[in-house]
Amino acid sequence: MEFTVNQIAGMLKGEVQGNGQEKINMLGKIQDAKKGQIAFLSNPKYEQYIYTTQASAVIVKKDFQAKKEINTILILVDDPYSSFTLLLEEYHRAISYQKSGTEEPSFIGKNSVVGKDCYRGAFSYIGHNVKVGDNVKIYPHVYVGDNVTIGNHTILHPNVKLYADTKIGNHCVLHSGAVIGSDGFGFAPQEDGSYKTIPQLGSVIIEDHVSIGSNTVIDCATLFGDATTIHKGVKLDNLIQIAHNVEIGKNTVIAAQTGVSGSTKVGENNMIAGQVGFAGHLVIANNTSIGAQAGISKSITEEGQRLLGSPAFDIKEFFRSYAIFKRLPDLNYRLRELEKKTNANNNVSQAQEIENDE
Amino acid sequence: MEFTVNQIAGMLKGEVQGNGQEKINMLGKIQDAKKGQIAFLSNPKYEQYIYTTQASAVIVKKDFQAKKEINTILILVDDPYSSFTLLLEEYHRAISYQKSGTEEPSFIGKNSVVGKDCYRGAFSYIGHNVKVGDNVKIYPHVYVGDNVTIGNHTILHPNVKLYADTKIGNHCVLHSGAVIGSDGFGFAPQEDGSYKTIPQLGSVIIEDHVSIGSNTVIDCATLFGDATTIHKGVKLDNLIQIAHNVEIGKNTVIAAQTGVSGSTKVGENNMIAGQVGFAGHLVIANNTSIGAQAGISKSITEEGQRLLGSPAFDIKEFFRSYAIFKRLPDLNYRLRELEKKTNANNNVSQAQEIENDE
Amino acid sequence: MEFTVNQIAGMLKGEVQGNGQEKINMLGKIQDAKKGQIAFLSNPKYEQYIYTTQASAVIVKKDFQAKKEINTILILVDDPYSSFTLLLEEYHRAISYQKSGTEEPSFIGKNSVVGKDCYRGAFSYIGHNVKVGDNVKIYPHVYVGDNVTIGNHTILHPNVKLYADTKIGNHCVLHSGAVIGSDGFGFAPQEDGSYKTIPQLGSVIIEDHVSIGSNTVIDCATLFGDATTIHKGVKLDNLIQIAHNVEIGKNTVIAAQTGVSGSTKVGENNMIAGQVGFAGHLVIANNTSIGAQAGISKSITEEGQRLLGSPAFDIKEFFRSYAIFKRLPDLNYRLRELEKKTNANNNVSQAQEIENDE
Q1: Does this model's pTM top 0.90?
Q2: Which of A83, A209, B213, C42 has CB atoms 3.0–4.6 Å from A12's, for a disulfide?
Q3: CA distance A9 to A20
Q4: Contact A215/B139, CB-based, under 8 Å?
Q5: Does residue C340 sit in helix, strand or coil?
Q6: Phi-psi region for residue A91, left (φ > 0), alpha (ψ -120 to 50) or beta?
Q7: Calpha distance A228→A265 (Å, rounded)
Q8: What are the catalytic residues of A?
Q9: Domain B101-317: which CATH class?
């Protein structure tokens, strides 16, 4: 790609300060961009670099006031970060290998239908009675089980595995090694100490605009007709465990290595950090925010809470308690000192009581 | 499938109350089952639904006493939940795609033998000198390394990876992305700060009736002739880490994202929750129960303990300590108040002592 | 392999005590080795076994002093453990299936070059413009995206996935299910509560002598030209999460199930235990040692620290605090007792003050 600063400013609805005819052919970071590149300044921490950057142009906030001389062209916008991500997207679209067609060998079962403008990589496997929408990218080593449905514009990266009966919406992205629809962990204890497997007959539904990270696992529901459900706009990071019958509410974001136990219903617009664990059969309110490594053992009924600890409670209270936890040896020492003094006082008092009594 | 209520009652050795000729063609949940479906009532929490359910029949406990009028047929049994799972199994058997035969392209090495009634999916790979028993299902993208042995009736879901020399028993189920037999994490520190790899020459033995979840990893033992061993009836959930030379005792159940470090021997009939971590070289007694996110840093010698915390100790004591942890700021405040009072008392006492002395 | 004790002693530059002509054909452990095997004694805990071992020879430390009669041949060396691992390596080299050549079907794209003495397993996929060095082993079901570079003597175990533009050095080992270069977890919140995906355009660089465990995930950097970087000699265990723009310093070792959040820079020669979590945008000093399940929420500026807890602090202080945490109910009880006494004293003191005043 090569654009003039003016063309880019046009795309971003920004105002140019400097030579609008300068050529831009690459994106870069303000601290190490070179001539021909465009960077952005959003975080004030990086302001120092705008006075020394080699970038041909920098996207800045409308109200930016330079404190020293600037040698780069400026594009003034409302939100430099958003503007830059918009450019990134355009760039991505331009350079992406627009994979399409079918590489051989690949496998497709009976009664399966694949839409227009799709890509099917070598060694990809599509079972029987599968419906794939338009403009779907199925990379090499992807496994699509029988009766699966996939919407339009969805990307299955190499080695995604969809068990039979899974339903995936439109505009979803699933990363390598994600497993959708494996058996839930259900075993009935027997009298002899062994366990009998409870058949897992449900499925998984993944709604539109969902993103699923590498090696994340989502188990199917237990009962026929039920589905573990990931609602619209949910973003799941890598190596996450979603157990059977779980429901994740709209636009909830979960960071890596978090686990949600069976039948728990996580609300909408939750922000859940990494390595969090949820017990089973809970209901978590909307707009809950949960810190890293927290353990959620009870349902959260009030919206908008921020939680930390295992078991988790209010994050501010947790930090107050933890600050004292770190000083417990000192606390213990002070308590011992008090005990000594009090016992001494007691003895004095008792002595005095005796004296006074005399 | 379509059965009469009488036929189902016969299978379950239950007693019918209502029209035994009614037709049943599907399983359902008591709260949303429809005509033609059969549901069950086990948890008293759901009793309300039996008075309104549309299910044609409901399996209930022998001693169930209705508090209102019931419009559905009842099948009375000893244990409704077990009876229902029995039906589920039958149903599963009936509807399962009975995969069999070999899809092409698939790969099979020299001197490898596959038993009767097996399925080998497209793009499955079987190395050299492999022995596969009867009625084994090897799904697409499964990798079976050289010299592997697999018993009868075992299922390897898509993309299971068995490194060379692994031994798998009968009636095992391995889910997608499970990796068995990868190198243990063994590195010898060198004087220059770098690490030298210690070759991992052992293998993995998985006994009968073991279930292994998606993306779970079991490393091989270090020394030639040794094996990381998963004993009979063990159930491992998803994303679990089992390090080299570990042994997991009979009928132990481990939930998702738990990790067991090298050479630790977990006893029989343990119940281990999710995200638990075990240090290396421990021995854990039988019938130990470990709560979520616990950290086990010492061997457990006494059977039947219940543990929580990191490092873990008795679960009841943990909760008692944690209750006070949450109130530590208050504790600290009370201690400070006491210090003030005691110092004041002290001054008074000292003053009195002086007075008395005078 | 079959060697005499003298030949092995020569390889190890050790001294023989006993019959140097004895034949050795296998390695074993001192406690259960048989005739024809060689074992080692390094940990004093195992000394008992040297008096009863059936091993034909045992490697011991130069200054080893037997306390009883020994019936096995000894090879005296400076460091028995290192000597034994040297033998293991030789043995490994000898027995390893020296996979080479290309199994079909396999896929290779346009303009891709593969060096000498490589192995390409069946169903392996190499995209376009890929450069593979000499003596590289690419096992079945491996995916190598477009523009990837791989150095010499590197092993990609079955089902390793390398996204486009990844760079892998020499002498690396990647285990099954490892995913390198998947999209970082970057989403910009929108006004309506939904999230917009921030395109992840960077790549991953893995330097020489790096080992990566099964099902570990390393995300690509966000900006074009940036790379998530794993420096020389790093050893990563299984199921680890490395987020976008992370840097792991030379010779750092990380145990299983640990997660490092975006843009964090881990120093050199760190020792990081399992299930540790790092927040994003941190800088961790060299030679830091972090205990299992710790949570690192702040940068570590001082080298050589040992940390534990979540949030983590000095490990010794953590254990001191935790010891008192376990006794908190007792502490609380003592505090209550003191409060009672002090209030009693107070009343006495006040009474006395009144008396004295009178």
Answers
A1: no
A2: A83
A3: 9
A4: no
A5: helix
A6: alpha
A7: 10
A8: 244
A9: mainly beta
CA atoms within 13 A on the CB side of A297: 14
All residues of chain C having their beta carbon less than 8 Å from the beta carbon of residue A353 are 348
Strands C73-77 and C101-102, by their bridges, are: unpaired
Q: What are phi and psi of A86, to 5 degrees?
A: -65, -45
Of A46, A88, A85, A53, the closest CA to residue A70 belongs to: A53
Are C195 and C219 in contact by the 8 Å Cβ rule? The answer is no
Q: Which residues of C touch A326 (CB under 8 A)?
A: 313, 317, 321
Whether A177 sits inside 8 A of C215 (CB atoms) is: yes
Count of other CB atoms within 10 angstroms of residue B175? 29
d(CA A277, CA B307): 17
* Beta-carbon-side half-sphere exposure of residue A114 (alpha carbons within 13 Å): 21
The residue of A144, A195, A237 whose CB has the most chain B CBs within 10 angstroms, and thus the best one to mutate to test that interface, is A195
Are B207 and B230 in contact by the 8 Å Cβ rule? The answer is yes
Residue A27 has a pLDDT of 84
Write down the domain spans for chain C: 3-95, 101-317, 327-358
Q: Return the structure tokens found at C71.
A: 């019936």
Q: What is the pLDDT of residues A59-89, one digit of tens each?
A: 999 999 999 999 999 999 999 988 888 887 7
Report CA-CA distances (Å) from C118 to A206, A331, B130: 41, 64, 24
How far apart are alpha carbons A35 and A121 in whole angstroms? 38
Instruction: Show residues of chain B in contact with A141, CB under 8 Å.
Output: 123, 141, 159
Give C90's Cβ-side CA count (13 Å radius).
15
Note the pLDDT tens digit of each residue in B73-92.
Answer: 999 999 998 888 888 777 76
Q: Give the tokens for residue C72.
A: 């096995």
Query: B323 to each of B295, B331, C9, how far by Cα in Å?
Result: 19, 12, 62
Under an 8 A CB cutoff, do A85 and C348 touch? no
Between strands B26-27 and B37-40, the pairing is parallel
C237 interfaces chain A, CB cutoff of 8 Å: no
CATH topology for the B3-95 domain: 3.40.1390
Q: 């009793």: which residue's tokens? A: B47
User: Chain A neighbours among B 48-67 (CB < 8 Å)?
Assistant: none
Do C233 and B295 lie within an 8 Å CB cutoff?
no
Query: Is C175 labeled as catalytic in the residue annotation?
Result: no
Q: What is the DSSP letter of C358?
A: -
Model confidence pLDDT, tens digit, residues A9-62: 988 889 999 999 999 888 888 988 889 999 999 888 899 999 999 999 999 999
Place of tokens 């009836």: B233
Torsion sign, CA atoms B17, B18, B24, B29:
negative
Distances (CA, A) of B277 to A316, B308, C274, C313: 27, 11, 8, 19
Backbone angles phi, psi at C21, to 5 degrees: -90, -10
Using the beta-carbon criterion (under 8 Å), do C292 and B313 form an inter-chain contact? no
User: Could you tell me if A274 lies within 8 Å of chain B, comparing CB atoms?
Assistant: no
Residues of C in Cβ contact (< 8 Å) with B143:
139-141, 158-159, 176
Of A195, A261, A352, the CB nearest to B253: A195
Burial class (CB in 10 A: 0-12, 13-18, 19+), A187: middle
Sign of the CA dihedral running A251, A175, C164, C208 = positive
> Which candidate, C164, C153, C77, places its Cα nearest to that of C118?
C153
Interchain pair B182, C176: CB under 8 A: yes
φ/ψ of C83, rounded to 5, equals: -60, -40
